[in-house]
Amino acid sequence: MLALHTERLYLRTMIEADWPLFLRLHSEPQTMQYVFGEIAEEQIRKGFDHRLPAWGPDSDHWLCLVVVDKANQAELGVTGFRIMSPGHAEVGCLLLPECQGKGFGTESRQAIIDYARDIGLDSLESTVTDGNIASCRVLEKCGFSFQRREPQAYQIGDQWFDDLIFHLRLRA
Questions:
Q1: CA distances from 29 to 20, 50, 91, 151 (A)
Q2: How far apart are CA 139 and CA 109, in angstroms?
Q3: How far apart are CA 68 and CA 10, in angstroms?
Q4: Among 26, 69, 124, 133, which has the highest number of CB atoms less than 10 A from its own CB?
Q5: DSSP reduced 3-state for 17
Q6: Quick check: is 147 in a domain?
Q7: Angstrom distance (rounded) from CA 138 to CA 110
């Protein structure tokens, strides 16, 4: 089981017992506001099950780590990445509403960046729905730079949003 540590956080491989956290994250309107519209529980479960198998650099599914607060062992959310092409991965993070705005997103993202560098990845990218200012700030704090805007790339409910693509080079 993969385990990453930061000053305040412990990131560990997601397991079957994490279903309630995953379901809550994907059911919270505040967390999902810029991610998806309303998702049926069966679809959330499919996403969860797809992330459960052991992960390796040639996996086609996300490396999904549960973010845990070392101080009180509270589960704060999930973070991880998926390999998109050799040397390149997409990163993402979801935190419970009560855990947002406390630096956990930045700290957990930095742990993922360090791990990606350690396993030899060359670059990372992250897609943010336009309007999600907090996620943009987290990425910028972690060294990502805005790369491009994809107009009306994603629909949430009846509204279309631009995707903002951020990039981080890990190796020169």
A1: 16, 23, 21, 24
A2: 8
A3: 5
A4: 124
A5: helix
A6: no
A7: 10
- Residue 141 located in a structural domain: no
In sign, the C-alpha dihedral spanning 34, 35, 37, 40 is negative
Residues 85-114: tens digit of each pLDDT = 999 999 999 999 999 999 999 999 999 999
Calculate mean pLDDT across residues 46-56.
95
Reading the block at residue 123, the tokens are 């670059």
Residue 105: CATH number of its domain? 3.40.630.30
Confidence of residue 140 (pLDDT cuts 50, 70, 90): very high
Q: At 42, list the tokens.
A: 């069966």
Residue 38 has pLDDT above 80, yes or no: no
Instruction: Domain count for the chain, please give it.
Output: 1
CA distance 33 to 30: 5
Residue 149 maps to a domain: no
